[in-house]
Design a protein that fits this description.
The protein folds into two domains: about 45 residues, no CATH class; about 70 residues. About 20% of the residues lie in helices and about 35% in strands. It is built from two helices and eleven strands; from the N terminus they run ααβββββββββββ.
Length: about 170
Amino acid sequence: MKKLYVLLIVVVFLASCAPKPEQIAPYVDQTLAAWPTQTAYPTLTPENTYTPYPTYTPAKTSTAIIKIVTPTFTASPVYTPTITFTPTATIDPLKKVHNPGMYLVGVDIAPGVWRNDGTGDNCYWEITTKTGDIINNHYGLAGGTMYVSATSYQVRVDPECGKWTWLSD
């Protein structure tokens, strides 16, 4: 019960020390009038320019009872990226896509694993030695791979196999 009386006395004391609403009203009105409304929005332009939200830096002024803060507008920097293309590697001409034909290994075609993009069932390719002996060959469905070793001499691919693309060493 004693705590209740102490609490009641504290509430009465604080209520008597607080400023009256009519004393505070002019300062509230000044603060609300000085507060700006934000109408700027970010914009994206075709040049990839980004304008972020504006930033506000408060300018401080003071009065006897309440401190009034008046914000001021500070422009933000505009970021415009510069995009440049720098080639990092060149494609080996021996590893480019090859059409049907006959190619010398190391001169016209690179050794490695090759894949064709054909869809027929009459695909023929062969890999030969310098004397014309067949090292490896294939006749049948297209869409497969062949391995050309560095010691091979010549590669022959027929039109039914489609184009050949180099995959790896």
